[in-house]
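Title: Prediction job returns without error message
Component: structure pipeline
Severity: low
Priority: P3
Assignee: unassigned

Description:
Job completed but the reporter wants confirmation the result is attached to the right record. Sequence as submitted:
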Amino acid sequence: MNEGNEDVVLVHLYPSKPKSFRWKYDVGDRVRIAMHRQPFRKAYLGQWSEEILEIAMRVATTPVTYELRDLAGEARKRSIYEPEIQTVLKSDNECFDIDGILKTRKSDGKDTIPGVVERVSE
């Protein structure tokens, strides 16, 4: 390096940052967050969180990050990288999975679930 090629070396070592960003998700998209991998974790439990979040803001950083909020509107404290989130295709009126039944009662010799009303055909 000498005074003649100083500018060329500077541009080669420290290239300018890209001015345009590629966004994979839009504001308002519903997503899940990837759970941290742990050794000896059961694989059938899945690698994505059950909580559904919404993208609140796209942050123009390198790499691209997103700020999230839950469906109640409460913001998350940290930004999430693009590979850590996955879109969710569930709508508002769709039912979610039940993890397990916590308590049952016996009524007339049948097991019933508290809080669930049986449909009676008329």
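Comment from assignee: result matches the submitted record. Residues 24-90 form a domain with the SH3 type barrels. fold (CATH 2.30.30).
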